[in-house]
Amino acid sequence: xxxxxxxxxxxxxxxxxxxxxxxxxxxxxxxxxxxxxxxxxxxxxxxxxxxxxxxxxxxxxxxxxxxxxxxxxxxxxxxxxxxxxxxxxxxxxxxxxxxxxxxxxxxxxxxxxxxxxxxxxxxxxxxxxxxxxxxxxxxxxxxxxxxxxxxxxxxxxxxxxxxxxxxxxxxxxxxxxxxxxxxxxxxxxxxxxxxxxxxxxxxxxxxxxxxxxxxxxxxxxxxxxxxxxxxxxxxxxxxxxxxxxxxxxxxxxxxxxxxxxxxxxxxxxxxxxxxxxxxxxxxxxxxxxxxxxxxxxxxxxxxxxxxxxxxxxxxxxxxxxxxxxxxxxxxxxxxxxxxxxxxxxxxxx
Amino acid sequence: xxxxxxxxxxxxxxxxxxxxxxxxxxxxxxxxxxxxxxxxxxxxxxxxxxxxxxxxxxxxxxxxxxxxxxxxxxxxxxxxxxxxxxxxxxxxxxxxxxxxxxxxxxxxxxxxxxxxxxxxxxxxxxxxxxxxxxxxxxxxxxxxxxxxxxxxxxxxxxxxxxxxxxxxxxxxxxxxxxxxxxxxxxxxxxxxxxxxxxxxxxxxxxxxxxxxxxxxxxxxxxxxxxxxxxxxxxxxxxxxxxxxxxxxxxxxxxxxxxxxxxxxxxxxxxxxxxxxxxxxxxxxxxxxxxxxxxxxxxxxxxxxxxxxxxxxx
Lengths: 349, 313
Prior knowledge:
- The complex is a heterodimer of chains A (349) and B (313).
- Chain A has helices at residues 4-40, 126-134, 137-168, 176-186, 189-203, 211-214, 222-233, 237-245, 250-261, 263-279, 282-288, 297-307, 311-331, 333-336, and strands at 57-59, 61-64, 67-76, 79-87, 92-96, 105-109, 116-117, 119-121.
- Chain A is an alpha+beta fold and 349 residues long.
- Chain A has 3 domains: 1-29; 61-117, no CATH class; 135-336, Orthogonal Bundle (MetI-like fold).
- In chain A, helix 8 packs antiparallel against helix 9 (250-261).
- The longest helix of chain A is centred in the first third of the chain and has 37 residues, at 4-40.
- Chain A is elongated, with a radius of gyration of 30 Å.
- The two termini of chain A are 31 Å apart.
- Chain B has 313 residues and is mostly helical.
- Chain B has one domain (73-312): MetI-like fold, CATH 1.10.3720.10.
- Chain B has helices at 2-17, 25-53, 72-79, 81-112, 120-128, 135-146, 152-158, 174-182, 188-199, 203-211, 216-227, 229-244, 262-272, 277-305, 309-312.
- In chain B, helix 4 packs across helix 13 and helix 13 (262-272) packs antiparallel against helix 14 (277-305).
- The interface between A and B is large, with 105 and 120 residues.
């Protein structure tokens, strides 16, 4: 152990500069996220105040004759002193020396609005309680969980079947159908969206139902099919041949041989879909937005954010929406962060 | 001699892959049938309908009065200043955003794949994190972040460097550069794909290069980059499609009012404010043809610069 330690430290020192660089980059990259977290805890009075510190803070309070007043840094006789602003006025104000309150109020000539306050650290959960009072979070969460569950089941089952079909069977037209699959990824959404909107709303009267949001998922998703297919391709066929000799049909081979080898990509695809459903707002704004019993959390919060224009409440609501995906992301990181393989070859061990 | 053995192994491989398929074309069709039905219902039929709609004056509120108007929608687009403006805006932003996203994701993936990196999984997850923030929330967050008076961009980064003047409310490119900057927050999946490609490179190749005295930078440009071109191409196509309004690998819920493409917002405005389905369809079709042309050109040129490991096997 004694012999090992210096070696380890040496190795650590060798990789330290590189890691420091990556951490620095990460801090820069995530700084808007830190900004969000800090802002979510800020009292509203701090928001427009450009002199306020970066952390959640408020101007120091001082109690005088039973009332709370704020303390400012005031230039007096050539030096800057913290003073209590008791009677603010346009051109002159009345101040109190917090160290010698017995001296009484002092008249001060100058604009108090140009003064910089004396700040103290002060954070608040108020922004979150405002949110929970004004939005039906439980109901919205239930709606989102329902959409996620049904959508995941549909899109995973269909995409896995289709991907298996593309990876193991000779299809009529050779690779043509696979090229068509890729082409569907590239179709701009707007060109198919207009007729669908008309059919769902005017012909089928599906506004206020979950069908327009969920139905298409049961027919597979081209991106997911592509990712799954590339991964299935990288699994050696020999394993399946062995199973086939034992009399296993294609479905059985898919479930007993291929899927157990493909957990990382299946988890990745289900996570991609989970994050998508959690944040989805386009379809839900069109088809579910009118009904509070169907409204998912993504659209509910977004709607709220566009109405309320107060930064700290907005950032608090972002945190609330993010909590569940964040937990999922960190729980699944072992599988998710293996990297997505798109080339479909047998990868080196 | 060598080519003969390659030929033989190719034949063997082909036989192996089709180990049971000869008579079972139908089985494959059964497996992909959900997608085939979906293709018909959710892609082909709507595309055709919108093509037909684009030659009519179909209005959502008065569908029974719809009439064929020939190509008048398309000639109207040629005179439509808003359509032209938003079209170019979308393309201009795409030209700036997509290369930036590709360079950044290759760079980040390179860092995250480096042997020297400690706590690999956690670091990768943290770099992925911004990609799961809802698009609208992210936009609001960035607005607060770049606010010249109270945002952190000026107070932490620019002002200490004496560069505060770069970022103004009034500066013309401010909102555009904000948009471009925040596009770096969507590259999580791209990083993962690059990582996947980089992990597929055999370490022996690097070992050999190191023996020959190749520096880290040389190794990156001579080995890593050429070997991951298929991933670069995939990302190029996917990010381009996302900019042009196609499928997004990790959709974070853009709204109709707030889309990353100004052309999309224009189409949505025609659709939801004017309810003019005919004109909106022709706008969409113009863009569809444009996007498909771009992608086709890319696919054709890709032969010359993209390396596919699976085609070589």
